[in-house]
Amino acid sequence: MAATAQAQPNIALIKYWGKRDTTLNLPATGSLSITLDTLWTRTRVEFDKSLRHDELRLNGAEDPATLARVSACLDLLRHRAGSTTCARVDTRNNFPTAAGLASSASGFAALVVAADAALGLALDRRTLSVLARRGSGSAARSLFGGFASMAAGQREDGEDAFAEPLLDAAEWPLAVLIAVTSHSRKSVGSGAGMESSRHTSPFYPAWVSSAATDLAAARDAVRARDFAALAEVSEHNCLKMHAVMQASRPPLVYWSGATVDCLQRIRALREREGVEAFFTVDAGAQVKAVCPPGAVSRVAAALADIPGVERVLTSGLGEGARLVDDGEAV
Ligand code: DP6
Predict the structure, then answer these.
(1) What is the pTM of this model?
(2) Ligand 1: residues whose CB is within 6 Å?
(3) Which of 119, 147, 192, 304 is most buried by its number of CB atoms within 10 A?
(4) Which residues contact residue 220 at a Cβ distance below 8 angstroms, ignoring those fewer than 6 apart?
(5) Can you tell me which atom of ligand 1 is nearest the CA of 138?
(6) How far apart are CA 272 and CA 142, in angstroms?
(7) CA distances in angstroms from 158 to 108, 162, 189, 197, listed in the order given
(8) Distance from the CA of 88 to the center of ligand 1, in angstroms?
């Protein structure tokens, strides 16, 4: 009745920002992401008949704020297993939580993989991706390594809104650098921010109606391993999402001054210095630069030089969520 899983965060190059249904957590748009390797979440789930309610510890401390979301996700798996047994969930991140590094993505991906094994369900990846999506939309993609794309789907029951693998990490081994410009928790979480944009941003309809074109272009670029094409559509999609955010009421401005400086520096590296690199930014102040492994030292040095950049994390692309030895865990 216990199992431990590891999942890594993923970085969306084509963003999910907006829901078509909040109950089933259905995305309004498809998305495309890369899964990291050096940053991870490890989660041990143990179902225990002596418990009267679910328990959650994050990095060793109780986390009552997230417990309801975790319990709701576990309920979906318990329902499939015909079980009502409560669980003890112990989870650890080796990176800062809630600072735009998508800890909910790796968190819910690890949770469903561990709970599936602990309950002996042996569900397939697609089903696990659907269940992870119910916890957090971006988590559906961390079930897969390398490059994954996520369909918005059309069905009302959401069974066609899952992620699928596009390329393995080894098939196009890009690197990701994360310029950490702030360690503070973001003021408005993704879920609430998306709902605000959906209801108040005048740019939201254009965002949704142009998403499929961006996704198709990015999928083609990934399949062709065309770095320049992927850079162009990724930066466009990222800035378009931030335009939607910033035009929301009240405005959602996730950037710090250093965020903007990083964007300008990465563009200069590519356009003036011939370094293959592009940026993306999520609902936080951190900037992620994507580049071939050979460009990592140039890009890392350029980002580290920018005032306000506290540190630069580097990662390759990694595997999807998977079980690990219980002892290895948390
Ligand atoms: C900006 O997956 O955190 O990182 O489904 O409400 O949990 P919920 O949202 P979440 O949103 C991620 C938003 C994003 C873009 C992306 O990862 O696609």
Answers:
(1) 0.96
(2) 12, 15-17, 25, 31, 102, 104, 136-138, 190-191, 282-283
(3) 147
(4) 226, 229
(5) 2
(6) 34
(7) 17, 8, 23, 22
(8) 25
CA atoms within 13 A on the CB side of 79: 7
Q: What sections of the chain are H helices per DSSP?
A: 64-81, 103-118, 125-135, 190-200, 204-223, 227-246, 257-273, 296-304
Probe target for ligand 1 pocket from 138, 194, 281, with the most ligand atoms within 8 Å of CB: 138
254 CA to centre of ligand 1 in angstroms: 14
Token pair of 69 as six digits: 């979301």
Sign of the C-alpha dihedral computed for residues 243, 189, 289 and 262 taken in this order: positive
Residue 175, exposed/middle/buried by CB under 10 A (0-12, 13-18, 19+)? buried
Residue 256, CA atoms < 13 Å, CB-side half-sphere: 21
Per-residue pLDDT 10s for the chain (330 aa) are 999 999 999 999 999 999 999 999 999 999 999 999 999 999 999 999 999 999 999 999 999 989 999 999 999 999 999 999 999 999 999 986 644 576 799 999 999 999 999 999 999 999 999 999 999 999 999 999 999 999 999 999 999 999 999 999 999 999 999 999 876 766 798 999 999 999 999 999 999 999 999 999 999 999 999 999 999 999 999 999 999 999 999 999 999 999 999 999 999 999 999 999 999 999 999 999 999 999 999 999 999 999 999 999 999 999 999 999 976 656
Q: Are the C-beta atoms of 193 and 252 separated by less than 8 Å?
A: yes
C-alpha distance across the termini of the chain, in Å = 17
CA 312 – CA 175 distance, rounded (Å)? 13
Element at 165 (helix H, strand E) = strand 163-167
